[in-house]
Amino acid sequence: MSQSVKLTVDGCIATLQLNRPDCLNAMDIEMLQSLLEKLKEVGNLDAPILIITGNEKVFSSGGDLQALLQDTDEDSFDRAMNIINEMTMTLYTLPKLVISAISGPAEGLGFSFALAADYVIADKSARLCMNYINIGLIPDGGGHFFLKQRIGERRAKEVIWEGKIYQPEEALNIGFINEVTEEQAYSRAKAKADEWLKKPIGAMIKTKKIMADSSRQHLLEILRMEKLGQIKMRESLDHKEGLQAILEKRTLEYSGN
Length: 257
Known about the structure:
257 residues, alpha/beta, two-stranded parallel ribbon, 10 helices, 51% helix, globular
């Protein structure tokens, strides 16, 4: 396994760093598998807090589009979706307090992944986008679940259908994120973790567990429907047009099919 995901532990705080800087931390199947394994490892640590971050310039540009362009094998796609779903459920139910620290882009699957945390911090460089619609796909990684949970069904549909980029202050006003910081996102996340460590953190984790357990079946059903829907969308003419337009660097021409 490569170092596409780095796990470090500093006392009571664990950090998962997405580490494919050459491709803006885009998630290929190897990185997804590594994320799943590292999250399971975190679950067995004594550290009660996990911070998820990228580097100072980017959180994650989402799924690896180059891999999507090159790989049309349905078995590989099915495996990737299974890993995404298990990774999402593992993160959401993790018996730790989880903070996402967003600098730069958090797009598509990267945005869904960030929203699975308990607390989301973005700095002034953050750019948030649920941009699946631009290539004729639907959100996965629990994107439907987390958006509806944070901002409600009506607004979630708008966000998904528009595929626009949100600046941090607008994201805060809408309710995507918990906090905008003037400092670098990871530094503020560390400070927030230190604040939590002064509280009865066992009680905080117990509250998280109760809420996660009560929503578990609903998230599982959303993930199942996202997988089936994504398989269907991959067969659509609009998805094929979206990928072809990217390859040819031209304006997209959707047909609605």
